[in-house]
Each structure stands twice: as C-alpha cells, then as structure tokens.
Design a protein that fits this description.
The chain is mainly beta. It is built from four helices and 30 strands. It folds into three domains: about 190 residues, no CATH class; about 160 residues; about 60 residues, no CATH class.
Length: about 450
C-alpha cells in the first residue's frame, strides 16, 4: 500500500483520505540552458546547448522526441538524435550541431579539462529555425505524437563578463526560468578551460536538509483564530534557502472537513537559524482577520530531498473565533474572550488587532457551531496515551516524573524543550524516556 513519502507517494490535494504516487515514476525537466554558447566570443563550444534531467525513479523512453524553440511548433520541431531513453537520475546534454563528435570533444575539454565525468551523455539536435536567442527564447520538447512534454522560457542572457547558464534545478515546468547558475549552487562550477562560463552540465546537486522536526503555529499560542506567524523547524540551518529559492515549499488550503484542496500563494519566507519563517502580514493567513476567508485545514508540504515530489507534510488549521484551540467555536470561546476585555492578551484577541474588546466577542458569536473535523491530523499538537514507567510529562509547566506504570494522556506541543515526549512528525523518542509503551491518537 502507498505511504506518504515512500516512492514519491503523496496525499490527494482534494481529499486527505487518498494516498498514491500517480505520475511520479519518471519526470523529465529541462534543467539547464545555455543560449549564449553559440557565440564564439562567449564560448569556444560555439553551439547552443540545453540539459534534460530525469528526476523520477525509472527510465523515460524518449524515442522519437524532438525540440523546438519559442515558435512552439511540433510540426517544425527537430529530432533529438542518438538517444532512446534517459535513466533515472541522469542528465543528458543536447548540443545544436551536425558535428557531434567534434562538439563533444570541445565541450568536454572546455568544461572538464582532462577529467570529464564517466558516462556523461552528450547528444545533438539541428535544423532550421531552432537556434536559441540571447534576447529571449524557449525550449519545448515534444513526443512522437506531438504532445508537449516539457517547456521552459527565458529572457535575455547575461551580457556581462561571465556567462552563467539558466538554472532550472527546481524543475519548473511551462514557466519562466530566470535563476542564473552561481558557483556552488546545485553543483555549479566554472568551466575548467574557460573562466567565463558557469554551469552544472551533467549533474544536479541539491542541498538537502535531513529532517523536518515539525511546525510552530503563531509563536506557540493555543488559539487558532488569528494566524500570522508560521515556523518550520529543521534539524539544521544548511539548505533552507535552497528550499525557498527553488520552490520546494507548497501550501494547500482545504475546507474544515479536509476536502476541496487548493494551492495557496504565500509571502516569501525567511530563514532564522534552523527555522523557515512565514509572515502572513497584519491581516493574517487568508488576507482578512475579521472574516472566515482564512478558515480551513492547511497542508504545508516540503520537497526535502529535491526530487520534485512534496513528500514531507505538516498540518495545521485556522478557525476564526477558536481561542482555546479545541477545533471548534463554542460558548467557552465567548466566555474566555469576555473575561479578557480591556487587555491585549494574544490568546483571547480573536482578530489579532492588539485589543480584546466587544468586536472580538462579536466575531466569536458569529462563528458559533463552526468546527474542524475531529479526525483530521494536526502536526503542531497531538494527544498521546502513554503507559510509562519513568518519563516526564511535557504538557506540565512543571514537568513531573510519572511512575507506577499507569496510563496518562498528554497534549504534546512541537519542539517542547527538555526531556520527555516529542511530537515532530510523530517522532516520539527523546532522552529521558525509558520503558515506555505508547499509543497515538490524533
């Protein structure tokens, strides 16, 4: 059976009940383009080239495939010569030439000197009207049935003293690519025998983090009525900017029943230590703190390993009026808000405007009866039933040792400090626990 994160399996974006890996067995991307390389002054190769990479788990048959530029005409497209398939994880260089042996020798010498990588495939294409322009152009790949399988387009190439390739290690499809290769990024290097050229021909190196520990919603607050801050907690700081710069984060909003998912845009996050921090602005997630437009069940997905699938997922929710974080808007929320009138208590400030007043209570009363489906899992908070012989209760403000082998229930917050239980993607092992048998219920 499919499991999230195994062989690129993921949850359906329309219902969190379905898991699978449709369409993920092979994935070709146009990973790098050098439209400036046909000019001798720019490169001794004197021929344009682009790179195709298979990010998937199995080989992709490209027999009969062809390419075209921004004219986007499959009928005018020219053949990709000398190749029938691209192996899993393989990158293949395609040079515009009728002299493949000569251009291959020049390319390998310029980029790698006397030590070209073993097994690097360089193939060719040629024909009328497919030269790549340095002002703006595109690369389109078509299968034998004239169905487009990959496309990128780009603006003007660098006109400076160096010539970096266009970097699409992020795997953007049918999209503009503007990121230029930089030394060290995705394995990019300066060509051995030409100090002007920068790229990563033949391979993509991604900077990966090793583990996402969990998420911190609204700076650890219990309320879920107003959400402006969201932190992702990683085990290290290296590689986090790569997740941001290469579109390896994805936010999906479902309704309160976990249905009808739709991808959401979000402000560019920042890196603070080992955290990626989202700031949704003063109006909070959804864009209006006084309405339920932002209400819903959210999936925050990460492409941890850079293979193009968003296999690591965390879940949280927003529900206007839910100030005690119990998944529903009820009389208890109204009473808690009323008791905090005249203060700036953020746990009772329904709309996050800095004041607890009658407007907050009105918002609660309007939402009475709204609730998040009980069975939906949450990554920032869970309830654990533990039979413990010697461990700490992390839910207590003054942690206490619980003995005598009795069963107890605790709500465990992500990244709670000290010894005890730890709920980051449901990894429950931490120092200070011994002889523990546990059962998890979300």
């Amino acid at each position: 059976m499919s499991a999230v994160g195994v062989n690129s399996a993921f949850l359906s974006t329309t219902t969190v009940k379905e898991t699978g890996s449709p369409g993920t067995t092979g994935k070709l991307i146009i990973s790098e383009v050098a439209p400036w390389s046909s000019t001798v002054a720019n490169s001794p190769v004197a021929a344009d080239w682009f790179e195709v990479t298979n990010l998937g788990a199995t080989a992709v048959d490209i027999t009969g495939w062809k390419m075209d530029d921004n004219s986007e005409s499959p009928n005018a497209a020219v053949a990709l010569n000398g190749i029938t398939s691209i192996a899993a994880g393989e990158s293949v260089i395609f040079i515009e030439t009728n002299d493949l042996p000569g251009k291959t020798a020049t390319f390998l010498s310029i980029w790698f000197g006397a030590n070209p990588p073993a097994g690097l495939l360089i193939r060719s294409y040629s024909g009328s009207g497919v030269g790549l322009s340095t002002t703006s152009d595109a690369v389109n790949l078509y299968d034998p049935n004239n169905v487009r399988q990959a496309k990128v387009f780009f603006a003007a190439s660098s006109a400076g003293s160096t010539f970096p390739t266009f970097d699409n290690a992020a795997g953007l499809e049918n999209a503009a690519i503007s990121l230029l290769s930089a030394f060290g990024g995705h394995g990019a290097f300066i060509a051995v025998n030409d100090g002007k050229e920068i790229g990563f021909p033949g391979t993509i190196t991604k900077t990966n983090v090793t583990r996402l520990g969990g998420i911190d919603v609204q700076n650890g607050q219990t309320q879920r009525s107003y959400l402006r801050a969201l932190d992702m907690l990683f085990d290290q700081s290296s590689g986090l900017m790569d997740l941001i710069n290469n579109s390896r984060l994805q936010l999906t909003q479902f309704d309160l029943n976990g249905q009808n998912g739709s991808l959401q845009s979000f402000p560019t996050p920042t890196v603070v230590g080992n955290r990626i921090r989202f700031d949704f602005g003063v109006q909070g997630i959804g864009g209006n703190r006084n309405t339920n437009a932002g209400d819903g069940y959210y999936e925050l997905a990460v492409d941890i390993d850079g293979n193009g699938s968003f296999e690591t997922k965390n879940y949280f929710y927003r529900l206007l009026g839910d100030v005690n974080g119990d998944r529903k808007v009820a009389t208890a929320d109204s009473n808690l808000t009323l008791s905090a009138f005249g203060t700036s208590n953020p746990e009772r400030d329904v709309n996050g405007d800095g004041f607890v007043n009658a407007n907050d209570r009105t918002l609660v009363l309007r939402g009475l009866g709204r609730k998040l489906k009980e069975s939906l899992l949450l990554s920032d908070r869970c309830r654990v039933f533990v039979t413990a012989f010697s461990c700490l209760d992390p839910a207590s403000s003054n942690p206490k040792v619980i003995n005598n082998g009795r069963t107890f229930s605790v709500s465990v917050a992500t990244e709670r400090g000290g010894n005890g239980l730890y709920c980051g993607l449901c990894s429950f092992f931490r120092s200070g626990i011994s002889g523990v048998n546990y059962q998890l219920r979300w």
